[in-house]
Specification:
heterodimer; A: alpha/beta; Rossmann fold; 8-stranded mixed beta sheet; 11 helices; B: 551 residues; alpha/beta; Pyruvate-ferredoxin Oxidoreductase, domain 3; 4 domains; 7-stranded mixed beta sheet; 6-stranded mixed beta sheet; 20 helices
Chain lengths: 279, 551
């Protein structure tokens, strides 16, 4: 096992779902390295939020970006060096609120990055306000009478954005989550994994999640209809079971591959030739 | 008509009529005859209709400004005559499309009829007008023919046939003298910016379309293969700047381009680049504001905003060139400086500079090369933000045998988040030492230019595109012109040296609130008078001369 820890003291609340995710990620990194991925080629990109502290806890190359910007920063990194394995850790607040445009467009472009969205269904680090996936009626500090907004279904959003890989995991199912991330990393193109997790301090829904989640199988991973049927089983309020697993997967060329096709290594730039046209 | 080797030509028509392209061809004709060329483009924020025009100044010796009075008007429609006839000099000549415009005076060309009779496309009517114009100016057929062959990609034979007929049908009113200078490439400011960055090793250009910066994206996209670069249009300016920071973090030279409103969106990323110590070059081309303002017209009102762009205590490089040569040089220079100091750098230009066409000195490109930044030597454990004496911590990139941690948080030397007082001060001090080095780097000759009568006691201060007109008027009136080119860190020593012997100082700006004056006040430089213009059009030579005559 590689030593992946830094000397930073972990400040997640005891019992936080992030610990499960961190454990799964360590297993993933170890497996990638043991199967030949150079450790230095793994880059994690984080956002702002409790989840993103993972950048401080893992002794890997990382970029701790601005709130909402992890996805687009990760794309910039992948554009610069396609050899890198770029994994994004973001939260439901960052990905679906501040940075939702980047999430949609990265999926649409099929940027070859892996997005892991920790979904605790609220802003935790700012001490508990509703996000796009909080249930209607959510009582937080900004909505003491309960949120009046219906939640959106982020996986449906990813489907509409033409994400080529969509999965859902659960922070308490570490081995299952590890396998999902490995599949996402091996998938060429954009991948989105929503990881359900409780926020033990501000929205402890561990009981709810334990009761609702189940490991689902989509027999036809390329079928949008079958994927949507699974994705719509849960409406992010109280109704329905919560299917876990890879829900959709259909490969196509990645953005970085397509947009850099014309590049030639060590090519001499031809400014003089261009200047001829300006005479 | 008098032969004076300094002419102004207005060419105007509705948007979509092709006046801009026709203007460029005429400019190239004069360029090939040895004249210096400058083109000002005036167009509106619409696709069809309205009124667009180009003012082409052709002269012996360099001129980067326009005059109020024109010698010739090439009218593609009646509107052009109505709008510009009054701008003609006493013996000025109108060359017009006789099929669209009924008038006696001037040189009428039956360009639509000729085009129709010879079976050409309607747009080829412009070819007939250019040919008629050339004949009226006494420009030889072979000069015109070779220019048309070069400029017109489609239907060249038909175009030449039409040109020949119009040429034959038109009378000569003036014999333009051929000058000895050899032609130089004609570049817009934006094209010059693109070339400078490419020469300094640009790898990736990110942008979201916004006038007047858009043509950088167009030009670089068109030449992606020639320059071996990637161009990428993203969902908004916030994406653009953050993607550029990501790419630079992973080792690629990245540049972005925008205008005021887009630049406002980018400011979070400028602050990020400062904290993460990630190099990025931002081209900000000012247009008139506030808000959407007048999108296709110019201004110099983003100066103070640019100087303060991004929250937090940090210094960025800002340079404001005044013509295409300086734009090329400084875009290359700033890209290198951004990498040397791992910092955001901003090239502040404006619509006049971005979209006007200038003679370009190819030797500028020889002065630019990709300079090597301070890199990790590969020995021992890598520490991204090592507490270097000069504040510049060697860079390494992911993929190297190193743990490279870039971050938006305040951090320790390794790039791990911190909140303790000691480390916060340590890292801010490290950055402050770097800012001091940045100041030393740019407070050198060339940061402030001096032109005109260098011994004059009366001096004018002009920056950015206003340099062109100020230079001409300073020469005519025997004034000193001081052009601050580096704006942050401000080259105080250079400016004070430029002020030597000056007892009267006048500022000239295209903006309502005199922002350069405010900047210089911070450095204890006081003005006796300020001349402000905020109709979003550039000063003409006559206009500025009149205002400066009695200072």
């Amino acid at each position: 096992m590689e030593k992946l820890e830094t000397n930073i003291i972990n400040t997640w609340c005891p019992g936080c779902g992030n610990f499960g995710i961190l454990q799964a990620v360590k297993l993933v990194v170890n497996e990638l390295i043991s199967k030949g991925t150079p450790r230095e080629n793994i880059v994690i990109v984080t956002d702002i939020g409790c989840n993103s502290k993972i950048a401080d806890y893992l002794n890997l190359s990382s970029f701790y970006s601005l709130h909402g910007r992890s996805v687009i920063t990760a794309m910039g990194i992948k554009m610069a060096n396609p050899e890198l394995q770029v994994i994004v850790f973001t939260g439901d607040g960052a990905a679906l609120e501040e940075g939702v445009s980047h999430l949609i467009h990265a999926a649409k472009r099929n940027s070859d990055i892996n997005v892991i969205m920790h979904n605790n269904r609220l802003f935790a680090l700012t001490t508990g306000q509703f996000t796009a996936v909080s249930p209607k009626g959510f009582k937080g500090k900004s909505t003491p009478e309960g949120s009046v907004e219906e939640p959106i279904n982020p996986l449906e959003l990813m489907m509409a954005s033409n994400s080529s890989f969509i999965a859902r995991g659960y922070s308490s199912k570490i081995e299952h989550l590890k396998n999902l991330i490995i599949e996402a990393v091996n998938h060429k193109g954009f991948s989105f994994i929503e990881v359900m997790q409780p926020c033990v301090t501000f929205f402890n829904n561990i009981q709810f999640l334990n009761e609702k989640v189940y490991e689902a199988v989509n027999p036809e991973l390329e079928s949008r209809e079958k994927a949507l049927a699974l994705i719509k089983e849960w409406n992010y309020n109280g109704d329905g079971k919560i299917p876990l697993g890879i829900l959709f997967k259909k490969s196509r060329p990645s953005y970085e591959e397509e947009i850099s096709k014309h590049l030639v290594k060590d090519k001499k730039i031809e400014i003089e030739k261009c200047l001829q046209a300006h005479l | 008509m008098e032969n004076k080797k300094d002419y102004s030509i207005i060419i105007g028509g509705a948007a979509g009529q092709g006046s801009r392209k026709a203007g460029l061809i005429i400019a190239k004709l004069f360029n090939n005859l040895g004249y210096n060329v400058f083109i000002y483009e005036d167009y509106q924020s619409l696709i069809k209709g309205g009124h667009n025009f180009s003012v082409i100044r052709v002269s012996q010796g360099q001129r980067f400004s326009i005059k109020e009075k024109a010698d010739f008007l090439l009218a593609l429609n009646e509107d052009a005559i109505n709008k510009h006839e009054k701008s003609l000099v006493k013996h000025g000549c109108i060359i017009f499309n006789k099929d669209k415009i009924k008038r006696e005076k001037g040189v009428g060309i039956a360009s639509d009829t000729i085009t129709k009779e010879l079976g050409g496309l309607p747009i080829m009517s412009n070819t007939a007008l250019i040919a008629g114009f050339s004949k009226a100016m006494g420009i030889e057929w072979k000069v015109l023919e070779s220019a048309l062959k070069k400029e017109l990609v489609h239907g060249i034979e038909k175009n030449l046939e039409i040109a020949k007929k119009a040429y034959e049908d038109t009378v000569t009113v003036l014999k333009i003298e051929r000058l000895k200078s050899k032609p130089d490439p004609l570049l817009t400011g934006n094209e010059a910016i693109a070339l400078g960055a490419v020469k300094a090793g640009l790898d990736i250009y990110y942008a979201y379309p916004m006038t007047p910066a858009t043509s950088i994206l167009h030009y670089l996209s068109e030449h992606e293969k020639d320059f071996n670069i990637i161009t990428s249009q993203l969902e908004n300016e916030i994406a653009v700047i953050n993607a550029a920071v990501g790419s630079a973090f992973a080792g690629k030279r990245s540049m972005v381009g925008t205008s005021g409103g887009g630049f406002a969106l980018m400011t979070e990323g400028i602050s990020l680049a400062a904290m993460a110590e990630t190099p990025v070059l931002i081209i900000s081309s000012q247009r008139s504001g506030p808000a959407t303002g007048v999108p296709t017209y110019s201004g110099q009102s983003d100066l103070l905003f640019t100087l303060n762009s991004g929250h937090g205590d940090f210094v960025r490089f800002i340079a404001a060139p005044g013509d295409a040569n300086e734009s090329c040089y400084w875009s290359g220079k700033l890209l290198n400086l951004a990498w040397k100091y791992q910092t955001p750098a901003i090239l502040l230009v404006d619509k006049e500079l971005s979209e006007s066409t200038f003679e370009f000195d190819e030797n500028i490109l020889k002065q630019i090369k990709k300079e090597k930044p301070v890199l990790w030597n590969g020995k021992g454990e890598y520490v991204r933000y090592t507490d270097a004496k000069n504040g510049i911590s060697p860079m390494a990139f992911p993929g190297e045998k190193a743990v490279v941690k870039g971050t938006s948080y305040e951090h320790d030397e390794k790039g791990l988040s911190v909140e303790d007082e000691k480390t916060i001060v340590l890292m801010q001090d490290k950055r402050l030492r770097k800012f001091a080095e940045m100041e030393k780097e740019v407070d050198v000759p060339g940061a402030v230019n001096v032109f005109g009568n260098k011994k004059a006691k009366k001096a004018i201060v002009a920056w950015g595109s206003t340099k062109g007109v100020a230079l001409e008027v300073a020469e005519r009136l025997g004034l000193k012109l001081i052009q601050p080119l580096v704006l942050q860190p401000f080259p105080v020593k250079q400016f004070k040296a430029a002020m030597k012997g000056v007892d009267k100082l006048v500022s000239i700006e295209c903006g309502a609130m005199g922002q350069m004056e405010k900047l210089l006040k911070c450095h204890q430089i006081k003005f006796d008078k300020s001349i402000l213009k905020y109709d979003m059009r550039p000063f003409t030579v006559e206009e500025l001369e009149k205002k400066l005559k009695n200072i």
